[in-house]
Amino acid sequence: KNVVNMSWRLAFHSTKLVTSYLFPVRVKAFREAIFDGNVEIIRALAEKRPRLLYQTIDADGNTALGLAVLLGEVEIVKTLLALGSDPNLANGFDHNHPLVILAKLRQEESSTTHLLADILLEAGSDPNRIVHYQADNLNRLDATQTPSFCETPFLCAIRYSNETLVKKLCDKGVDVDQPNEDTGMTALMLASTMGFDSIVNVLLDAGAQPNQVDFQGNTALHHAAAGYGENIECIKSLIARGADVNIANEEGSTPLIVAKENSNDALVKLLTSASSIEPQSSKLSSSPVYDKVDSATEQTIFSFT
Asked: ANK repeat positions in this chain (predicted)?
């Protein structure tokens, strides 16, 4: 497997290197105009050769729109879309969608992120579009990714922990429960796996269903119990919003069993305590208070305030 991954990486980067020498002069001029923010040259070249709006223009496989988003050039993005750039066209190598390129920037609370998201969405960029990506093995965030995987831009925004973009997409009415077509994993499951408690709460506020299951019968609680770190806060948030701790997956495992299999003592205590508590509604008017006392230590081990 390591040999295959290494061969794939070498082929990927060798192709980029060779491609960088093959761009015609007009493509290079178009790319330079984007870097320089020269709207007049961009418009003149695109009107003379419209295909410049759709083809790869650099060694990373970016389209003109993808490059402009990457550079955070708001006016250039507006210009390219007005000229006819496709807001859903992925780039040429890793197949990144324009919204995914924006998600990777992770400029928290950046006005540019808000502006670019609004511009792309207004132009028809689809956060629930199914895109088949080629992951860059040198910069992979998630070890479970393979060189080729399927995901929506919305799920990618969560994977890259871009809370600003996640909030924006939720506000715009994205389908928060659309599952990954390969695994059945939802946005809430992914955020729970990664331990992104703040994003978990954003998704729950947007109506994400805490008891939806993936293709193996796992809920968000299963994913949190099997995810990175202890995920205490994620699990507290899920339980407070109606997650059922007693749902078993196709293998017959509940989240508690998963936590035990991972030797996660803190989660075992939390889930054991929660198993006897009636789940709350997924939409709460106020924060509930739960207290569970360990009879052996007389200490509160499970509390929401």
From this structure: 60-92, 183-215, 216-250
